[in-house]
Description:
427 residues; five-stranded parallel sheet
Amino acid sequence: MSTRVAVVGAGLAGLSAALELHRRGFEVEILERSRLVGGKATSFSAGGVEVDNGQHVFLGCFDAWRQMVRDVGMEQELYLQPRFEVLLLGEGGTARLHAGRLPAPLHLAPALLAHRLLGLRGRIEVARAMLAARRPAHSRESMAGWLDGHGQGPVARAAFWDPFLVPALNAPLEACSAEAGQFVLTTAFLAGADACRIGWSRVPLARIAEAAAEQAGTLRLRTPVTGLVREGGRLRALATPEGEIEVAGAVLAVPPDRLTRLLPEQEGLGAFRNQPIVDVHLWYGDESLELGPGIEFAALVSSPVQWVFRKRPGYLCCSLSAAAEMVTKPEAELVELCHAELARHLPALRGRRPVEGRATRDPQATFVPSPGLVRPGSASPLPNLALAGAWTETGWPATMESAVRSGRMAAEHLARSLASLPDEVAA
């Protein structure tokens, strides 16, 4: 007879935990308070078009995320570059960067040599910092301080570090730890040519989340968990508006603020701070619109719009990370800002107007990996309750990879804990 466990939250962390628990033979019940699965990597209708609630790209080094997609039979829906290649658009022109086939870190040499927006001095500065990134940073040092300490001038910041690190960490580099920034550099850029390849889903992310939920267990939408029912120092049941759900154990895959209400004795949750992400969707009503040769996505240098993605002919999505100053602006103002920034960099859009524009906002998109922040692991104060979420201690910043890894770790922890409990408790 299988053991019944619950997973609270149907984001990527919860779905990853549910899949792993199901694989281990548990009877899994997934409880999600909203009407959608996928959490911060889901999709919804905006103006009659299904859009993702954020432009979620992944990298070649996202091993756990890619494995999860393979496990649910959706690998064919992922696109991954055959090699790292990025277009940067700046006031001084464009730069198309690509990785070479040399061993790391020499695989980055072609990208730096082609980065004419950096200039000679900027190229030298970035190369020196890349080499220094393998040495540990001080635990209380910010990434901005680390860059300053390694001689990175304003051109290097604007044309290289900000376009890549600010979106990866979703926070101003002054607020991020140098350790987090170095992790991005060593794991994505310095690990080899395959690690830094960029990919995305060809289908709305909700389709992948739905496939995972279907395979992982029983899904209950619009079912908020309002409390934990305890007995003998352990979790006995989950309280919901419809009544109690008795379980042998559970994974709480919820953000820190919700966890505080459910598990107030969990330490350190008050230290977490969030940063928003804003995405602006622009439809130009012309499927023959050509932005330029090979422009599928690009980074904008010295712009509030970090990245633009060509979703379909005539449909562009602008991504604004670390968007604390943008998240409260009216939709019409955001649409006008993004169109103006794109037209400034893309001649094909000058003299045009979008026929429709929509803004999607996530006010609490990710946690800020601030210097000295202590992230909890999978264990909780209750032996048969595990924690999951991109914000837990996975070693990764708040990404899809971190979320999936956290779910797997939480499932493994819960399975070990239940195996060590007396049979009458774990049943």
